[in-house]
Design goal:
The chain is mainly alpha-helical. The N and C termini lie far apart (71 Å).
Length: 102
């Protein structure tokens, strides 16, 4: 609980790397600590670690009886999804061939 609570303080201070570290430590002690997993997802999102943040958030949503009941988690999932879509490579246009005779 100590690491999870300290992580919350780090989040409030926007110390994302420290928050991520403390959440990871809390999860070593109790891997089912949903708050620590959610807080780590928040920190990872802010650090630009979108894939890892989404993995954590998916774990959190699986633990909730009704994932739609946690508005904050759903909003974070939407933000992460938007960032992952931006990062995804767009389909490459077909390479153009020179006109015959060139």
């Amino acid at each position: 609980i100590l690491h999870s609570n300290r992580a919350f303080a780090h989040i409030k201070l926007k110390k994302w790397a420290e928050a991520e570290t403390d959440c990871s430590e809390a999860l070593k002690v109790n891997p089912k600590n949903t708050k620590a997993t959610y807080r780590r997802a928040m920190a990872r999102y802010e650090l630009g670690k979108h894939e890892s943040a989404m993995e954590d958030l998916e774990k959190v949503l699986k633990e909730l009886p009704d994932p739609n009941s946690n508005k904050e988690a759903m909003e974070l999932k939407e933000k992460i999804s938007a960032q992952l879509k931006k990062k995804a490579p767009s389909p490459k246009a077909e390479t153009s061939q020179p006109a015959p005779g060139f």
